[in-house]
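DATA CLASS: polypeptide
GOAL: derive structure tokens

***
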Amino acid sequence: LELDPAKLDRLMLRARVESQQAKPGLLIETLDGNRLLSLPDSKQTVGLATPWGSVMVKLSDIRGISPLENDVPGLYVRLRDGSHFFAYPESGVLEVETALFGKRQFQPSSIRSLAMAGGKPEEAQDEDELNVPHARLTGENLLIGQFDLPVLHFQVQGQQIPVQPGQVRELKVGDGNQDGGSILSAELWDGGMVSGSLQEKSLPFRMGEQVLNILPQQLASARMPEPSVPESLRDQIAETLRDLGSDEWETRENATRKLTEFGRLASGQMQEALKQSADAEVKRRLKAILDGMK
């Protein structure tokens, strides 16, 4: 059988032998239609420009990159930690080791899409049940990480109220504005609530090893699934947990009451104690307190 190469549309391999099965990696598609499989590389990075600053992303952390719909400039980036956001490729040279053609170099701007290939499929995450610190930004962007500053300053009725980010359970955009800024409502882990505009003009946000800068008006919400507990308070909680196993009934009752008052600030230590304790009554009391928080 003789074929004229000029008349061929494509050549496809019907089947692979077991030793030639596809390896896990990233399938790179370029704007000119080429597709190459890059092998996993934990060090190789690609530069992306976002509305909150530049970020260097490891290829091994990428779940997929695809063009925006309706020929809108830019890329939609999905990371393996659950982050997804819009970005533009930065200039430079991306060198990858391909499965069949050795090392190849690309201009990031020449890449149309990246997608995970081979390996075990990853389960889709339910964004409504994310159990890691994260921020939702306008434009349906989601960043896994947390604010990287010691204190947030809320302006409330002419007063300035400092709040540590680690004490915020959830931060949401409220109704209206104040002094030209959006109103933000912070639900605190101790049960309190603070609502007002932020004094900060920019919010440093740590995403892995890098820090982005988010404007307050770009923020839709932020959530901290576990509170940041000061060391002094952790010591108090630990002492109260020890009292929970006391021989004295009254001491056990007081410890139960204190742990209930600590609430979610003590949830992490109580969950750990529930796993470690062999005392049936301690486990019963801890389970009752934790169930009451649900």
